[in-house]
Write the structure tokens for this entry.
Amino acid sequence: MGQTTKEPGKNEPELLGQIVVVIGGSAGIGLETARRARAEGAKLVLAGRNPDRLREAARELGAQSTAAFDATDPAPLERFFRDLPSPIDHVMVTAGRPIYGRLVDADLDEVRRSVDEHLLLPIRIGRLAANKVRPAGTLLFMSGTGARRPGIGLGVASALTNALPALATTLALEIAPVRVNVIAPGFVDTPLSATLLGDQLDARRNQLRTTLPIRRVIGPADVAALAVHIMINTALTGATFDIDGGQQFVAS
């Protein structure tokens, strides 16, 4: 693509006309990324489990279409990708939630679901998106930094956190020139975090404000800004991008 000359003082939206698909796009990081992409001129396709939240997000952002389904169910996921227009430009997946607890006490059905959400789902999406995403478009998955240190209660989360970057690197080679990247946040102040922490949420926020090198809590907008940058910068593939304010380097 040739270079264009921009009028001084004016910046063209950097995703103008591109189709951005966000699976898990009705709340939290996914919704904020959709907002950011829309502000950069993208057309949005939003997917998630909750039809009411999807309708609200679509109304707010003028989404091109929405689809309510469980992304870990192969049949509706395949239908969703089959029905997408071709080509699409970017797919971001924020579906799934971590599980914590001692391995010896773990509910194996929950463990299987977490493996499905964090490892099998990216593989399925890689297969389905390989012929849908244009060259230099990107698949973008979510991992984390919070479980990189070993600790009681972190066994499943730690295993999946460390496995996904390796999987994404291989996928980036196999489906090139489609790009594949991972975002690894620490604690992000989202509705999911509020659900997981309950009445301990404010204490966790205060702890992070005093211990993180950046002296503030990371929000969905921080992660969204990184996600959109990865979509825009076509030199980025096969990489994991940490965004945790230095959380992994300080005592938790």
User: Anything to note?
Assistant: The longest strand covers residues 133-142.
